[in-house]
Design goal:
Length: 333
């Protein structure tokens, strides 16, 4: 029995040596690493691989450059808004205010009568956006799904409204609304001119919204409408119950576009409602009481930031609708 135990002890591998199984595993790992390295060299260390690497570097530089050009002016406005009057005349202050202050924000909000102008601008933008969305949805569906004489010509006319500069029709528009329908009714400095233009498809960028809705409706399968017609639905019922729910993401996108453009518009606002308390009008005169050039620039930058900031918040909550509308616009019959 003692001799048998001695033989078993001699056969037991010492703790300082690797077992055969572990040696096989490590050998396979080394061999696999060699194969992967050879495969990587064969795929990448050639003209195609070097070309892909060069294009990746160029693409990265382009994206960073575009992002810098877009974000840098906004960053500068933020820095100026939180600077003090001493910081804006100090050449040693670059990106971080030395003293820091909310003076320019408070002054800009006071000069703009910010909250009153904010409410008026929001109300006007919502009214205009709703009218433009309604017209764009109806007109876009008509151009996309119905065949009638002169359809293509009318659509060309819609696109031509995007090419006509607003400055060329300023005087006729002003006269028409100053003497509405040839009477003594004066609609200038009210919401009515922009509401009427939007409700009749002639508002700011209305042709673009009609084009977007037309392209989206053209991409929806016709089987949706055919199934509704088989169930006895008419044109209006099909449009309201079938087509509009499927176009909800694009409708939200069009609404946000219309809302944003109206919010920051200066052409129609200054022409048709120059005395109305809205942000775009107030921003033009926010620094009229100042004489110092540096403070005028700082107040103007801060006013622009106060106008843009609500739109940034809207975009943060609504960006997914932009992405979804682009994805859905790729549907084909």
């Amino acid at each position: 029995m003692a001799a048998l135990l001695e033989k078993l002890k001699e056969k037991k591998p010492s703790s300082g040596k690797k077992s055969f199984l572990s040696e096989m595993r490590s050998g396979n790992k080394v061999q696999r690493e060699k194969v992967d390295w050879e495969t990587w060299k064969r795929r990448n260390l050639n003209m195609n691989g070097l070309g892909r690497f060069a294009w990746m570097i160029i693409r990265f530089v382009i994206i960073v450059g575009i992002a810098y050009m877009i974000l840098y002016p906004f960053f500068v406005k933020v820095v100026v808004a939180f600077s003090s009057t001493e910081d804006i005349v100090d050449n040693t202050v670059m990106y971080i205010p030395r003293h820091g202050s909310t003076y320019f924000i408070e002054r800009a909000m006071l000069n703009m009568d910010y909250w009153t102008s904010f409410v008026n601008t929001a109300l006007l933008s919502v009214i205009v956006a709703v009218c433009q969305l309604f017209v764009a949805s109806v007109a876009g569906y008509g151009f996309a799904r119905f065949s009638f004489k002169g359809r293509d010509l009318l659509f060309v006319v819609v696109l031509l409204t995007l090419m006509i500069p607003a400055q060329t029709i300023q005087l006729p528009l002003f006269v028409r609304f100053a003497h509405f329908l040839g009477s003594d009714i004066n609609l200038i400095n009210t919401f009515w001119p922009l509401t009427i233009l939007s409700a009749t498809g002639l508002g700011l960028k209305n042709g673009l919204y009609i084009y977007l809705m037309r392209q989206f409706f053209r991409g929806l399968p016709k089987e949706l409408e055919n199934s509704a017609y088989i169930d006895g639905a008419g044109f209006f019922r099909t449009f309201i119950s079938i087509m509009l729910p499927n176009a909800m993401n694009m409708m939200i996108t069009v609404f946000l576009f219309a809302f944003t453009w109206q919010w920051t518009d200066t052409t129609y606002n200054s022409m048709l409602m120059p005395k109305l308390d809205i942000l775009s009008n107030k921003a033009a005169t926010v620094a009229s009481s100042l004489e110092d050039t540096a403070q005028i620039a700082a107040i103007n930058d801060t006013a622009c930031l106060l106008i843009i900031f609500p739109l940034l918040i809207v975009f943060l909550f609504a960006q997914r609708y932009f992405i979804q509308s682009i994805e859905r616009s790729g549907l084909v019959e």
